[in-house]
Design goal:
By secondary structure, the protein is of the alpha+beta class. It has a domain of 109 residues: Alpha-D-Glucose-1,6-Bisphosphate, Chain A, domain 4 (2-Layer Sandwich). 24% of the residues lie in helices and 42% in strands. The protein has 4 helices and 7 strands, in the order E-H-H-E-E-E-E-H-E-E-H. Strand 4 and strand 5 form a beta hairpin. The two termini are 25 Å apart.
Length: 163
Amino acid sequence: MNAVSTGAPFASTAIEIDAPLAQVWSVMIDAARYREWNPFLVELRPVDGQLTVGGAIHLRVQWARGGGARTVEVVTRLDHPTTRGDLSHAAMEYRYTGWLPRLALVRGSRRQSLEQRAGGPTIYRTEERFTGLLARGVPLAQVQDGFERHARALKSRAEAARA
């Protein structure tokens, strides 16, 4: 699980999960239970009570060394599981909102996706690229670490739910 080096600050990770895509998706969109299993994204609270495209969500991340951040984001993509041939996929994306992106100081959009070929593991991927005048000030190493902790915890939760 490593970040890809690009011009803009960028964090990403991927992991194989031995559970059906639908099971992993159900864990991903169960916002009320994030604090039970997710050591990085300890709160994902939809303002209107459920995840919907265009809906605002309150996020709280916890850094591994203590501290964290709170943000309000807007869901820009919520592709529920679909299957075509032997490939199933699903995706969720949300965009950072507030005065920093409005002033083009820091912009970011996190994408989380799932893919599974028939009979194979589910592949979870997440990535976020930061742009703007202050993007280099994003604590990228902490975001990368958080993405990796999130991925491992999602794997553990989804695989345990399968048993």
